[in-house]
Amino acid sequence: MADIKWGIAPIGWRNDDIPSIGADNNLEQLFSDLALAGFDGTEVGGFFPGPDEINKQTQMRQISIAGQWFSSYILRDGIEKASEAFEKHCQFLKAVGAPVAVVSEQTHTIQRSDSANIFTDKYHMNDQEWDQVCAGLNEYGRIAAKYGIKVAYHHHMGTVVQTKEETDRLMANTDPQLVGLLYDTGHIYVSDGDYLSLLKDHLDRVVHVHFKDVRKAQEADSKEKGLTFQGSFMNGMFTVPGDGDLDFKPVYQLLKDNGYKGWIVVEAEQDPKKHDPFEMALTAKNYIDTELLGQPAGKLTHLA
Ligand SMILES: O=C1C[C@@H](O)[C@H](O)[C@@H](O)C1=O
Ligand SMILES: [Co+2]
C-alpha cells in the first residue's frame, strides 16, 4: 500500500459553510468525479448520508474516506460535554473506516460570520482558555485512540488557533502521542504569509494534510475590502494546487523526506458555478502527477 493517499474534499462540489452552494451536486456525482479523476478518496461532507450508504457508494468505486471535520466546543461546553460529542464523532469515523478526526475549536470562531473581517477580527484566548483547550484535546486523543483514530488539529483562519505562533503553543502544550497536526497550506499562508515554517517546525506531528492553493491577487483584494471568510472564498481567494500561486513542491518534498504516511487532501472552497469541480479535480490531479510525482498527466482511472 502506498505511504501517501491522495484525496479531494467535497468542498469544491458543495460547501458546508454555505449549504446553498452546489446544492445540485449529490454524493454519487462527487464520488464518481473524484474516482474518475484518479483520487483515492475524500473527507465526509455535511450532506453525506449514514455510514451504510457511504460505505456502499465508496466500495463500488474503490475509494475510501480519509476523515471528517469536527466542530469542537471545549470552551463553550466544557471538556466533559465536548468529549461526549467527540466520542460519537469517532464512532461514525470508525464505521466509515476513516483514520483521522479533523478537529477545530469553534468557540469564538468568526469563520461563518457575515460581518467580521477575517483578516483582522479573530478572537485571542487567555491563559486559562488555552489550558482548557489543550487539556480537552488531550482527552479527545485518548478517546480517539480507543477507536484506532488520530486527532488531527486544524489551524484555521478566524478561529482561536490560526497563526503559527498559536499553533506552536498548541503543539507545545498537548501530548504528541494524543494530538497530531493537520497542516493546511492555504490557511497558514493567508494567516502568516509563510507556509513552510509551520511544516518544518512540526513535521513529526503532522498526521493529515490539506493542499489548499491561494490566488494572491484575490487574497490581496479580499484583504483590502476587509471581507469575511465566506466573502473571501467567494471572491476566489482559494483554489486547487496548479491553479494558484503556492508552490507545493517543497511541501511534498519535506513530507516525503520525513517519511510521511497518510492522506494529502486537495481542498479548495470555490463556487462550483464559477469553477467546475470536475475540471478543478483534473487540474489538481494533473499538477500532482506531473509536478510532484513526475509521472504522465491526466490519466483518468478508467483508462489506466
Ligand atoms: O478543512 C477545512 C474544512 C472547512 O469546513 C473549512 O471551512 C475550510 O476552510 C477548511 O480548511
Ligand atoms: Co482545511
Automatic annotation (TrEMBL):
The keyword Glycosyltransferase does not apply. It holds the Pfam family AP_endonuc_2. Keywords: Cobalt, Endonuclease, Hydrolase, Lyase, Manganese, Nuclease. It catalyses: scyllo-inosose = 3D-3,5/4-trihydroxycyclohexane-1,2-dione + H2O. It comes from the Bacteria. Residues 37-272 form the Xylose isomerase-like TIM barrel domain. Pathway: Polyol metabolism; myo-inositol degradation into acetyl-CoA; acetyl-CoA from myo-inositol: step 2/7. Its cofactor is glutathione; Co(2+); Mn(2+). One of its GO terms (biological process) is inositol catabolic process. GO terms for molecular function: endonuclease activity; manganese ion binding; myo-inosose-2 dehydratase activity. It is an enzyme of class 4 (lyase). Its EC number is 4.2.1.44. Belongs to the IolE/MocC family. This is Inosose dehydratase. It comes from Limosilactobacillus antri DSM 16041. The gene is iolE.
